[in-house]
Amino acid sequence: MRIGIDAGGTFTDFIVFHNGGRIESFKLRSNPAAPAKVILEGLALAAGSKRADVVHGSTVATNALLERKGAKTAFLTTLGFEDMLRIGRQNRAELYNLTPMPKRPLVDSRYCFGVRERTWYDGTAAKTPTLAELRKLRKLLEKARVQSVAVCLLHSYQNPGNEKAVADALAGVGYLCCSHEVSPEFREYERASTTVINAYVGPLMDAYLKELEAETRHSIAILQSNGGFLTASEARRNAVRTVLSGPAGGVIAASHMAGLSGYARVLGFDMGGTSTDVSLCDGEPREKAESYVDGFPVRVPMLDIHTVGAGGGSIARVDAGGLLRVGPESAGADPGPACYGKAMQAAVTDAHVVLGRITAQQFLGGQMHIDVQRSEAAVSQIAAQLGMDVVAAAEGIVRVANANMERAIRAVSIERGHDPRRFTLVAFGGSGGLHGCQIAAELGIGTVLVPRFAEGLSALGMLLADFVRDYAAGAVGRADLEKRFRDLEKRARRQCRGAVLDRTADLRYTGQSYELNVPWLDRVQAAQAFHKEHLRLYGYSSPDRSVEVVTIRVRARKQTMKPDLGRPAAGPPGKPVLRRVHVDGAWREVPVWQRAQIGRRPKPGPALVLDYGSTTLVPTGWRMRVDGTGNLIIQAR
């Protein structure tokens, strides 16, 4: 038995793949205060007394970082560079703001310490720290009672000797991690930021995974942000690699499910309860070596995912200027939207309730009752402030949420040179189907695919993921690249027996500030691939210019057994029920279908399609059908 788990901000999704090939899914309300409790409850329901292999998408590291609830961390660096985290880069996120608020670092300046050492850019150790100095530093850290220590010395990606000496001297002083292990790459600030984040969230991930393993007999693995999974012991030491864990599962599954229906170019649109994650896949998921999480650079391989604070639980409000705003604040799992029965703040889900698209007994196949009157009362408060009726206010909430999500899709497509009209929009998550066609229409996209298991697709992605480990080494000015590649491959073979190894490298024109990742066979082939990729991305290349190698990389991948999704069973014959729904600007009697009833013959909108944990709205002018894989295909007429 294999179980995929995606712990979202509002619901935790479970996909269970039984030995006989049967697949089932279910949801539980998330508990941000005690996430392990929900996981253990779901595992008990899914597996009972049986033993299972579990791949889990965790939000522990992400939430700790976003909410500033990580460990008390110290930062150790080369003497004279103690202010590196505070200075950062000179990039201005708010270009026209002359007095921007400074970003509060994760480490207080009182706990930033300098070490008398120096390694040159070529790896030469010019000065090593003395044992007396390191003993004094250890006493300072123990007196400060720090829980975690991040060590990032200058040019340690070329020669980690001094970092290893510091780590040996400080062994036992909390959760300690070094940059040559976390992110052994060029650029000291990004490397330091990544190491500090790992130290900041690592103790929480360590404690969380220990609790899970102590309370269950199952084998626990954690999905990385790059779409592959790590064992629990590896995730404890590399917590920073899990900051986009759940969304990465959605990208993997969206690409896979769309491929089963014959669509290779897809825009993933994952709208959950708290946020929306969008991605672009042109044949395969796109990846990047660096990303920003809450303004902090994270220099580890990640799938290219853009996240906005727009979900079913996003709270609607009227600002001081009298304008309607939606998100990024979310009602989350507790208290949740007003219809959950606790809060009186209108959320996007409440707007759909008011518009008749979600009914009292519709959530989770009728297992979760929602309060329709409470939704109407919450949206009425917004309507009163705007001076309009409750239906117009509900429509406005949906339109504003759509605009926020459209901008996110433009960011991963149009702003990067891709025409969204040439892609299929894959809408999933609990709320994706309710917004997919409207957003597609605004972007000129003619096909929307709502996959089977749409409500728990990220959890399905956990089961489709392979075991993946990434290794990197600095290469600036190095002539021994082949030896360094072999050293990385030796480590990979030792730690990932039976894995397939791939070589890539980050290249740039000499003098450029940033680099592109290309496959590596040798210098000549890599340079040719770099010129070609530079031309594709930027519209020009300069084959006569010299090219330098900045970082070399090895990826170890070991494939896992994938669930055979097969052909779903057809539903019982019968006609849809009719429901009064506000769609296309008016109240209409709209057919409401179960997915299994639709079949392959196209049926016109407007219509609603119900699944266990999600609802799809098919507007007028669109036709829908279910193909042989169970995916719902909706196309503009």
Structure keywords:
single chain, 637 residues, alpha+beta, Rossmann fold, 17 helices
Written description of the protein model:
By secondary structure, the protein is of the alpha+beta class. Among the domains are: 73-204, Rossmann fold (3-Layer(aba) Sandwich); 467-558, no CATH class; 577-636, no CATH class. 32% of the residues lie in helices and 28% in strands. The chain has an eight-stranded mixed sheet, sandwiched between helices. Strands 3-2-1-4-11-12 form a six-stranded mixed sheet, sandwiched between helices. A hairpin with a 4-residue loop joins strand 31 (607-610) and strand 32. Helix 1 (35-47) crosses helix 7 (188-215), helix 10 crosses helix 11 and helix 11 packs across helix 12. The mean pLDDT is 90.
How confident overall, as mean pLDDT? 90
**Gross geometry:** globular
Biggest sheet: strands side by side, in what order?
19-14-13-22-23-34-33-30
- The third-level CATH topology of the domain at 73-204 is Rossmann fold
How many β-strand stretches?
34
Task: Round the Cα radius of gyration to an integer and report it.
Answer: 26 Å
* Second rung of CATH, namely the architecture of the domain at 73-204: 3-Layer(aba) Sandwich
Structural class: alpha+beta
Q: Could you describe the largest sheet, including whether it forms a barrel?
A: 8 strands, mixed
- Binned strand content: 25-35%
CATH class of the domain at 73-204: Alpha Beta
Number of helices: 17
CA-CA gap between termini: 43 Å
Q: What are the segments in which pLDDT stays under 50 over at least 5 consecutive residues? A: none
Helical content class: 25-40%
